[in-house]
Amino acid sequence: MASKESFLFLEIFVIFVLVLVFSTKASPSSTSSREAEALLKWKASLPKQSVLESWVLPEAENTSSTLRSPCNWNGIRCNRAGSVTEIDLPNTGLTGTLENLDFSSFPSLVGLDLRENNLTGTIPTNIGMVSSLTYLDLSTNYLNGTLPLSLANLTQVIELDISRNNITGELDRRLFPDGTSSSKTSLKSLKNLLFQDTFLGGNIPEEIGNLKFLALLALDDNFFCGPIPPCFGNLSELTVLRLSNNHLSGPFPEKIATLSKLSDLRVFTNSLSGVVPVGLGNSSSLVVLHLAENNFTGHLPPQVCRGGNLVNFTADHNNFTGPIPTSLKNCRSLYRVRLEHNQLTGYLDQDFGVYPNLTYIDLSFNNLQGQLLSNWGECQNLTLLKIAGNMITGKIPDKISSLKLLVDLDLSSNRLSGEIPDSIGNLAELSFLILTDNNLSDRRLHEDASFEIEQESFEWYNPEPNR
Ligand SMILES: *[C@@H]1O[C@H](CO)[C@@H](O)[C@H](O)[C@H]1NC(C)=O
Ligand SMILES: *[C@@H]1O[C@H](CO)[C@@H](O)[C@H](O)[C@H]1NC(C)=O
Ligand SMILES: *[C@@H]1O[C@H](CO)[C@@H](O)[C@H](O)[C@H]1NC(C)=O
Ligand SMILES: *[C@@H]1O[C@H](CO)[C@@H](O)[C@H](O)[C@H]1NC(C)=O
Ligand SMILES: *[C@@H]1O[C@H](CO)[C@@H](O)[C@H](O)[C@H]1NC(C)=O
Ligand SMILES: *[C@@H]1O[C@H](CO)[C@@H](O)[C@H](O)[C@H]1NC(C)=O
Ligand SMILES: *[C@@H]1O[C@H](CO)[C@@H](O)[C@H](O)[C@H]1NC(C)=O
Ligand SMILES: *[C@@H]1O[C@H](CO)[C@@H](O)[C@H](O)[C@H]1NC(C)=O
Ligand SMILES: *[C@@H]1O[C@H](CO)[C@@H](O)[C@H](O)[C@H]1NC(C)=O
Ligand SMILES: *[C@@H]1O[C@H](CO)[C@@H](O)[C@H](O)[C@H]1NC(C)=O
Ligand SMILES: *[C@@H]1O[C@H](CO)[C@@H](O)[C@H](O)[C@H]1NC(C)=O
Ligand SMILES: *[C@@H]1O[C@H](CO)[C@@H](O)[C@H](O)[C@H]1NC(C)=O
Questions:
Q1: Could you report the per-residue pLDDT of 334-361, keeping only the tens digit for each?
Q2: Which ligand 1 atom sits closest to the C-alpha of 60?
């Protein structure tokens, strides 16, 4: 019995070894020659181009299998078994269509990067055949037509970028997990999803809220309409959310403000309305916040700079009322701030601090009071300071002339009084100085010839700045 068993075992072992030898030696070469053929077939369908020059097989039919593999071709990478894992041809001038690329021929393909090329035509349906793909970047091409539903087959894709193409149609909800645990196909592994600047429209599917690994969602510069799905508040890994330049309407979902990793939120130029959640910036450290050009009302969130990292902040052209966010006062990280065209109240001399990195601040057309203190002169990097159309009183401080980089200064339509400091004439970069509609006296205006002066209006314009 024992010897019979061990004989049987030996027999099985030998078969196993044979299978192993066969599968590690013979199968890769057949896989890789199938891959090579698929790539050559694609190449043959494209206009002749130098980027694909290395894509050739040796003439002789009996050449060894390594020479017949595509692994040394430009842009092609393989695994140890000689099967293609990556096709990387970004920014190579690649021209033609994807129509004749047989995606089903690449069982090991994990990365396909064809961004910044001249690809035209549609995204073929059989792209769903490369189900091992984890990285797909077709951005910045001329691809058109709609997104194939077969993309839902790419269950392992972590990054999908189809930005800057002529893609039309809608984002089909079936591309995303339906929220049940059933093993339906979907793009369920996505961390980064980018469809910037295409022609996609319709509603944003709320199923995107079920992508539990999602860290970056960029749907800006499209034609999306309807609401921001409230379930985006479930995306606990989200750090970047960009929805600007669409036709989105409705409120800003409250729960998004509680996402603890959110650092970059852009919803500018939509038709969003209602109140921005009071807790925005309270749970996470915002670096970029753009709320501009919507129909928001109510107060600005007081904690926008609670983390002390806010760099760019815009809320201009809305209907915000109430005070300047308290956390802005000590927000030394600020670089660019636009709050113009709202109905904000508060005091210029109490609600703001000193911002060493600030280059641009526009507070025009609000209801701000108080004085322009000399500590604004410590914002040494300012190139633009606009506070027009408020109720600012007092004098223009001499210290304003220490803003050596200032190009634009607009303090028009306030209640400023006293004399215009002579030293303003020393600001070498100043091109636009608008002080009209105040109670300023004009003594200095007659003495300085370096500006073209409209005396009556106090509007100065220097057409040739010393650069
Ligand atoms: C195989 O290759 C050798 C040299 O590379 C060549 O002389 C021979 O004709 C080839 N045989 C076949 C069957 O192609
Ligand atoms: C790609 O398209 C651009 C713009 O249409 C064109 O200028 C450029 O020559 C094209 N490149 C190639 C390699 O065809
Ligand atoms: C999805 O992937 C499977 C397995 O690779 C394949 O058989 C099927 O045809 C694919 N479906 C689509 C729609 O691409
Ligand atoms: C892409 O869209 C632009 C803008 O509408 C258009 O000018 C261009 O012809 C389109 N290109 C293709 C390949 O569809
Ligand atoms: C896509 O662009 C091609 C030209 O590159 C054009 O012939 C075709 O009609 C376009 N298809 C769609 C659906 O817009
Ligand atoms: C958000 O997730 C919770 C569970 O974490 C779930 O009960 C709820 O339905 C989800 N909300 C939305 C709007 O999907
Ligand atoms: C803002 O709302 C008002 C009143 O509801 C409406 O008239 C206006 O068109 C809206 N503006 C924008 C930019 O959506
Ligand atoms: C902000 O966070 C603090 C502490 O983390 C908490 O006490 C406060 O209620 C929060 N405020 C809002 C508006 O969420
Ligand atoms: C502000 O509100 C007024 C009155 O409701 C409305 O007419 C106007 O369009 C709003 N402005 C913006 C920028 O939404
Ligand atoms: C802030 O805005 C400026 C000007 O638009 C831009 O160059 C810079 O990259 C922005 N900073 C961040 C952190 O987004
Ligand atoms: C100012 O900007 C520099 C360069 O971007 C940065 O290293 C520094 O931390 C910023 N200062 C503050 C106070 O954020
Ligand atoms: C101001 O600008 C200079 C040069 O543009 C830059 O090096 C510096 O980081 C900025 N910030 C501060 C705090 O000076």
A1: 999 999 999 999 999 999 999 999 999 9
A2: 14
CA of 423 to the centre of ligand 1 (A): 89
Cα distance between residue 33 and residue 39, in whole Å: 10
Question: Closest ligand to 118 CA?
Answer: 2
| Stated pTM of the model | 0.87
CA gap 229, 250 in Å, rounded = 10
Q: 88 has which bridge partners?
A: 113
Instruction: Look at ligand 2, atom 11, and give the residue with the nearest C-alpha.
Output: 93
Render pLDDT for 132-159 as a digit per residue (tens, 0 to 9).
999 999 999 999 999 999 999 999 999 9
CA angle 186, 258, 232 (to 5 degrees): 25
User: Is 102 in a helix, a strand, or coil?
Assistant: coil
| Ramachandran region, residue 130 (left: φ > 0; alpha: ψ -120 to 50; beta: rest) | beta
Cβ–ligand 1 distance for 1 under 6 Å, the answer no
Three-state SS for 260-282 is: CCCCEEECCCCEEEEECCCCCCC
